[in-house]
Structure formats: C-alpha cells, structure tokens
Amino acid sequence: MAAGVLLFVAVNLACLTVSLNLVSGERSFSIDYKNNYFLKDGKPFQYISGSIHYSRIPRYYWKDRLVKMYMTGLNAIQVYVPWNFHEAVQGVHNFTGGRDLEHFLDLANQTGLLVILRPGPYICAEWEMGGLPAWLLQKPNIILRSADADYVEAVSNWLAVLLPKMKPWLYINGGNIITVQVENEYGSYFACDYNYMRHLRTLFRFFLGEDTVLFTTDGNTDKEMTCGTLEGLYATVDFGTDTNITIAFNRQRRFEPRGPLVNSEFYTGWLDHWGDPHAVVNAQKVSRVLGEMLAIGANVNMYMFEGGTNFGYWNGADHDTKFRSVVTSYDYDAPLSEAGDPTEKLLAIRDVIKQFRDIPSGPMPPATPKFAYGFVTLKKVGNISGLLNTLSPVGPVKSQYPLTFEEMKQFYGYMLYRTTLPRDLSEPTPLISPLNGVHDRAYVSVNGVFQGLLERDTMLVINVTGQQGDTVDILVENMGRVNFGSKINDYKGLLSNLILGKDVLTDWKIYPLDIDGAIAGGWPHIDSQTSFPAPQKDPSVGPVFYMGTLKPNGLAWDTFLKLNEWTKGQVWINGVNLGRYWPARGPQLTLYIPGPLLSTTLPNNITVLELEGAPAHLRVLFMDRLSLMSKSLNRAHLV
Q1: Could you tell me which of 114, 132, 95, 121 has the C-alpha nearest to residue 16?
Q2: End-to-end CA gap in the chain
Q3: At what angle do helices 3-20 and 149-166 cross, to 10 degrees?
Q4: Is the pLDDT of residue 322 over 50?
Q5: Over residues 465-475, mean pLDDT
Q6: How far is 533 from 522, CA to CA, in rounded Å?
Q7: Is the alpha carbon torsion for 486, 488, 489, 492 positive or negative?
Q8: How far is CA 255 from the centre of its chain?
Q9: Is the pLDDT of residue 636 over 50?
Q10: What is the longest distance spanned by two Cα atoms in the chain?
Q11: Are 161 and 13 in contact (CB under 8 A)?
Q12: How far is Cα of residue 21 from the mean position of the Cα atoms in its chain?
C-alpha cells in the first residue's frame, strides 16, 4: 500500500479517535463459542435488529426513523454502505449532507441503538449495480466481485477510505458498531473466488483490528453457504417466513458448529418490480416466526424495518429470465412504511419483542403529518430534441458507431443518440436492435415526431418512415443496473448497432444529458418568461418536459404525487429528483415527497419529463396517502 494512503489512514484514525474521546479496555464485543452466544461487556447478548438505509431516507428524517425503531424494542440496526453513493466519480469521495454516514451512526448512538455494519463492497440491496460504482465498467473485461486485479485495486482504495472512518465507531473503541459484514451473499455469485474473500478479510482485519467480529451472510442453501463462507468470518444465514427455522439454523450449524444463531436478513416484506403485483408478507407470519427465533435465543435482523425510497436513479434491477427494474418506492411492506409511519405489522412485532426484553416506556412517535395539496396543471416546455443546448452544454461526441453510457462517462439517467436516415423510407421500415443491445429503453423520433420505443428483452423492432437526411433521435434511458446475480456487469445505452432495413446506422452524434444539473440550477422555471420552442406535431407524445408550480400555503408536510393518465417518466420538485413514475405499468402509482423538501413561502417548482405520452389535462395531484394498482392483491396500503 502506498505511503500516502497509510499516512492518510493514520491521520484519519488519530483525529477521529480524539473526537470520540474513546476509552479503551472498558468495552468488549465477542463470540462465546462454548456457550453459543455473543458477549457484550462480558455478558450474554442477543440482538433484535432492523435494517434501515440512510441512503434511501432524507437526512432530516433519520432521527425520526431511528427513534421509532428504538421504541419498537430494537436494540440494534443494520446498515448498508453503498459504495457508488459515496464515490460516484472515481477518486472523489462524498460523505456530506445525506451521505454523512458518521452523522447517521452518531444519531443511532444517541438513540441507544447498536449497529451491524454492512460495508460491502457489494451490497445488493436492490440498489443500482448492488452498490458497485458504474465507473468500474470502464474496464471492459473486468470481473466484478473477484480477484481481478483492476477490481481488487479499486476495492482496496475504497476500503482504505471507508474503514478507517468506521474504526472509531466500533463498540470496542467507544462507538456502537458491534459486528461488520464482509462482502454480501457471496455464495449467490458465480465466481466463488476464495482468493477475493481472503483479500477482503485481510483488508478488514488490517483496518479494523483483530478483535472486530467479522461475519458473512448467505442464503439458506448448501451451495451458497459453501461459496460464501470463509474461515475467520462468522457464517450467518438469511431466510423469511416460509422457511423452517430448525432446518435453516441446522444448516448454519454445519458451517459454524459453535457460536450464536443468527438470521441476518429475516424478511418482513419484499421488493416490487415494475409490472408485478405489490408484494406483501403477512404480519401474523412475521410475528410468529420472529417469536420462534427469539425463543431459541437466535439473533435476528429484520429486513427491511424501513425501506424508504429509491430517489433519483438509485433503483436496481433483476435479470433472471428478462430485465425487470425495481420501482421507485422501497416500502418493502416493512413495519415502518416508506414515509416512516408505524404500521400494524410494527405493533405486532413490538408485542413479540415485549415477551423477550424490556422495551422503552412511552408512546410510539406518530406518523408524520400528510397534506393533500390538490391539483396542479402543468404546461409544456418542449421536447428533448429542441432543448439540447440547455441539457447538453458540452455538446455531442461524434462516433461512427454507438458508444455506451460508460464509454461516455455518463453513468446514470438519459443520453441522446442522433443520426440521419440514410435513404428515403416511404414505406414503414423496421428499425431493429438485433443483439438486444438497447439497455434499457430507447425512445425513437424522426424530425421531432415520435415513432415508438425499443425495450430491452421485450421490444426489439419498430417501424419508421421518413426521407433521406431526416434527423433520427434516440433517447436512451438507463432503468437501473442489475443488482443481483451473474449479470451485474450491466452496461447501458446502445451496446450494439441498430439496423434500419438493410442499413447499419452510423455517424452518430451522442449527447450526454445533464438534466439533473440543469434542473438543480433552476431550469426551466428561471426561463419561464422566455418563449420555448414552438410545439412540434402531436406535442404530447414522446420525450417532453413539462413544468408547473405548487403554491405555498404555509405547510411543508409529507405528500404523495399522483400522475393519473401520465405514462412514464421522471419528476423533480425544487430541483430534487424524486425518481421514476410508471403508472401505465404499476404497481406504484404515487411518488413520496418528504415535507421538508417543500417551501412554505416560495413557489414549489415541479418539473416532469414524460417519455411517452402525457394526458390532455396535464394535471398532477398531490395526495395525503399513497396509491397502488388495484391488481395488487391483499396489499397493505390502499386508496
């Protein structure tokens, strides 16, 4: 390791150690292998924990959620650290504002909650690329989550930044972190590379010390446990309500004959994909199985306790038989709702916990207040093709063949590919993605007129017409990289050529779009007095921006935005990206808006990018509750 990195580490450790006023020798956390439990300060200890993701909850609500977890009777929380959330640009680390992990740990400490830290470097979590930064894919042959030299170098550099920040927060050093996970569910990954896991073990021991309890988590199968476990890392399992706990813990015992029983992910709910029914896990089953585990002395972490929201572009995706993107809400049918509200499931869990430990006295903090601000009518700003000077200030890159997002160093959001028709197309002519190379959706226009879309694994051909020399614009949307399984090397954009009839389309101008930067800077509202481009033919079809304002009324309460009869797109409020909407596919029909995001005195700016087709009424509705598709059976939340 370079001398500069070691010096950086030493300085960090010294400063943080002093700031926390650590007292050595008075605190301990370890495993008693003889008696099969954890020891905290020399006494038997059982944790009852819940997962919470600081990256999915606005900073101003961190304390509220933590207090509710504490008042439920939890004595610990489990926390993922998404690498790409802190190092979106290689070598540039951000731990400020909503990324201030140490502030989050401090709030948990003040609340009385211990921490089970899961720093990855891969986390899954239904998070974009499982938390791995997309810039890793600039090495085209990189083998992620393996001993590949390029990957190991990047991981080592990242952990040399993160882990020294975490060391003072270890319980044994005066903080509240009791255990630290190494990697995550590695047995589910094809590589099964023990050299990689050994390298991680060496890094974690170097930065966190020999006394830190390090562990692994894997699914409840022999294969997963075989590839995911390693000597020196305590092996734990994860499973949900449909698993026989005796069989599950017997499997843990085969890999860890002695020590505490641990379910690191006990599923209180499940995730949603666009186009699927809303997932629900029965509260009575959760309570029953939780009680069974606690009764035999097992340590349990509930995943999730509150899921939160995939703001912006942070949602992940799955690719088993076909690509399926995770919805914006990460409500997860969890005990605390997406908006942080206590549910019947939470109260049932609290009743179970009461049987095993004293819980804090006093009332459960209430749900945050909600307000239905009503309808707002938007107006058209213009289609993307006519706004490139604003949205792509650096201008296009010229290339004979398409370049990916990664080659263009634009990792998230949208990018526009422009070329011209090579000949007259008087009859509808197929535009084909022959190698399924559209990742993930492509919105096709000719001379500003929307022709249709191509979709990964689903729609690989559309027909277009036009004249030789007509401008062809293809807006490509990254719907979130795969976060689980063997296909996490998930490149975005046009990965292969498009064929129009018998012609391969070439001579591209590729525009990286900084939509978020423009909107964060006040556009389009600061230009509202300026005349926008004249509407093209059929102005409500294709990728079009709309804008409006929600007038202040003295309240800044949580609310939910419903885009009834809108098709698919993205929403920003006061420059903040709320995430994706897709009511045409569901099951999510509303976007959660945290109250503190709204102004009580100034107009609240609404910007909508509708990708396919807006309704004639151009109205959006601010409601005081969420809404889900009626096809969601036995769902927890209804309108």
Answers
A1: 95
A2: 57
A3: 20
A4: yes
A5: 97
A6: 18
A7: positive
A8: 31
A9: no
A10: 82
A11: no
A12: 34
Cα(122)–Cα(118) distance, rounded to whole angstroms? 9
Report the DSSP beta bridge partners of residue 508. Answer: 399
Is 87 in the active site? no
93, 137 Cβ separation under 8 angstroms: no
Residue-wise pLDDT for 191-229, tens only, equals: 999 999 999 999 999 999 999 999 999 999 999 999 999
- For residue 528, what pLDDT is reported? 64
Distance CA 86, CA 120 (A): 13
Residue 267: which of 356, 318, 335 has the closest Cα?
335
167 contacts 99 by C-beta, under 8 angstroms:
no
Cα distances (angstroms) measured from residue 452 to each of 443, 494, 533: 6, 16, 22
Can you tell me the distance from the alpha carbon of 32 to that of 611, in angstroms, rounded to the nearest whole number? 57
Eight-state DSSP code of residue 364: P
User: Is 79 within 8 Å of 104 (Cβ atoms)?
Assistant: yes
pLDDT at 386: 93
Residue from 128, 183, 265, 306 carrying the catalytic annotation? 265
Burial of 188 (0-12, 13-18, 19+ CB in 10 A): middle
Closest CA to 456 of 474, 444, 430, 438: 438
Backbone phi, then psi, for 293, in 5-degree steps? Answer: -70, -45
Report phi then psi at 546, rounded to 5. Answer: -130, 155
126, 183, 185, 477: the active-site residue: 185
Q: Are strands 299-306 and 262-267 parallel, antiparallel or unpaired?
A: parallel
Q: Which two tokens stand for residue 206?
A: 């170097």
Residue type at 31? I
Q: Are strands 379-383 and 544-550 parallel, antiparallel or unpaired?
A: antiparallel
Q: Find out whether 249 and 229 touch, Cβ atoms under 8 Å.
A: no
- Output the six-digit token pair for 351: 């009743």
What token pair was written down for 460?
């690989």
224 tagged catalytic: no
Instruction: Please choose, from the candidates 439, 432, 431, the residue with its C-alpha nearest in 3D space to the C-alpha of residue 405.
Output: 439
**149 exposed, middle or buried (CB, 10 Å; 0-12, 13-18, 19+)?**
exposed
